Inverse folding.
């Protein structure tokens, strides 16, 4: 499968090339790309092509620090809708978790994750930037640009933070002082990993700008509804699609297969290879939805049955006995006795 990246990931490279004495539009044209493609919030490029553009520009201009220079040209807006979700999280740590979850929307070939400090210092953690897909060639310039952009985004999110150190998986592409000047922290090379070492208290720091939780919720729902991580298992993709559709449309395998751009028989075969089936996934999603509706709302049982696509209250009772070993009434009663938490009113 060809990994893709949002063209906005290298937005500004044409202007950077121009500023360094080259012809940005002409270099992009060599790869069938125009400056307008980079300004679009919807355009995509093969990840390999984006890396080659940066590498060729660095070589042609004799600028081995081009990746870092590109990072300095960019800001969080290049992440498109993901920037809205991340920027409206309550804390820096929550923003990083959101970015980690949805980064595939921006770049299908990388992962972002919080991890332990490789130097094992107390009170220190790390944020790691990883290339994952074996079909994407390793491009040091791309790593420089990506880790540089991560550093700049953390500054934006936190309002300024203490960077304790940087690990680079490759040798320095230019004088080491260029890296330390850019990051403002010690940089170690040939470590095999690309990461930023930060105080763990950074993750609890509030975002530096006012946040809008409702906007965050809306953007996350949009990302969940419109994007599926291509590296997820077929089971995960089907479960996500079924969960989104349950209670709104009749969930059928041919409909889900169409959403995933697969033939129904291909979908069935892939699920079988993963040890499950469409019916098993549908049953599991129904079970989870029914449990939530029974224990967290006062919704009438007939309405619960309708929302989980069961043919009436009697069908819900049979399913509840199979799922939980109890009737819907018992499930709801037991939940009330187990937790004094406020309940959601009908409607």
């Amino acid at each position: 499968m060809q990994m893709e990246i949002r063209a906005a990931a290298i937005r500004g490279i044409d202007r950077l090339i121009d500023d360094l004495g080259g012809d940005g539009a002409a270099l992009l044209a060599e790869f069938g790309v125009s400056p307008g493609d980079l300004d679009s919030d919807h355009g995509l490029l093969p990840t390999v092509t984006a890396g080659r553009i940066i590498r060729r520009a660095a070589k042609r201009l004799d600028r081995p620090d081009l990746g870092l220079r590109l990072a300095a040209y960019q800001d969080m807006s290049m992440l498109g809708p993901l920037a809205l979700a991340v920027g409206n999280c309550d804390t820096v740590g929550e923003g990083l978790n959101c970015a980690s979850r949805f980064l595939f929307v921006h770049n299908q070939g990388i992962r972002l994750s919080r991890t332990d400090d490789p130097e094992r210092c107390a009170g220190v953690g790390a944020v790691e930037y990883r290339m994952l897909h074996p079909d994407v060639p390793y491009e040091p310039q791309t790593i420089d640009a990506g880790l540089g952009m991560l550093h700049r985004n953390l500054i934006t999110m936190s309002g300024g933070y203490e960077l304790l150190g940087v690990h680079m998986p490759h040798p320095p592409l230019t004088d080491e002082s260029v890296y330390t000047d850019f990051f403002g922290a010690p940089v170690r090379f040939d470590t095999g990993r690309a990461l930023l070492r930060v105080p763990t208290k950074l993750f609890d720091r509030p975002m530096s700008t006012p946040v809008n939780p409702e906007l965050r919720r809306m953007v996350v729902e949009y990302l969940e509804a419109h994007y599926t991580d291509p590296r997820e298992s077929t089971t995960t993709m089907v479960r996500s699609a079924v969960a989104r559709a349950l209670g709104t449309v009749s969930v059928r395998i041919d409909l889900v297969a169409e959403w995933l751009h697969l033939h129904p028989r291909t979908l069935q075969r892939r699920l079988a290879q993963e040890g499950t089936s469409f019916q098993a996934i549908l049953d599991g999603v129904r079970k989870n939805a029914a449990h939530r509706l029974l224990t967290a709302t006062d919704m009438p049982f007939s309405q619960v049955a309708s929302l989980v696509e069961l043919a009436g209250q009697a069908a819900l009772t049979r399913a509840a006995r199979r799922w939980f070993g109890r009737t819907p009434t018992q499930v709801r009663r037991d939940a009330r006795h187990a937790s004094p938490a406020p309940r959601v009113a009908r409607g």
User: Anything to note?
Assistant: Residues 140-158 form the longest helix (19 residues).
